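ok trying again, last paste got cut off:
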Amino acid sequence: MPQVSRNKLSKKTEEKFLSTFHLILTKINKSEDMSTFLLSLLTTTEQIMLAKRLMMFVLIKEGYTDMELSRTVHVTRVTASRFRYFIESHGEGFEIAWKILEDEKLLEELKGFLSRLVTYTAMAAGGRVKATIL
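nice, full thing came through this time. structure:
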């Protein structure tokens, strides 16, 4: 998890910062502009962390186990379990992402990719294939 400064912002300042950030995100409507913005804003590690969360959500929605999440997304089983609990109690935002994936016809393609990845990682974990990046 990224570290937050120990120097706390006032509640009013924090709210202003967040509302400005949310406004900018909602106003970027081109994929290329969003990619450029995110590359400037987030480190590669932060982007991967966020992408992993999204992929874990899709796998959870598709009924995969914590063990499968752990192997596929390369997180610990404890992290997978905690994330599943988080989704169950606070997953409304991820449902918005699910709807976008459905609307953009990307969901089936993503499900197919993740299914192949889960199968591959299970086989690699069992020593039946040489572990390589897909």
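cool. The CA atoms of residues 66 and 78 lie 8 Å apart. The radius of gyration is 17 Å.
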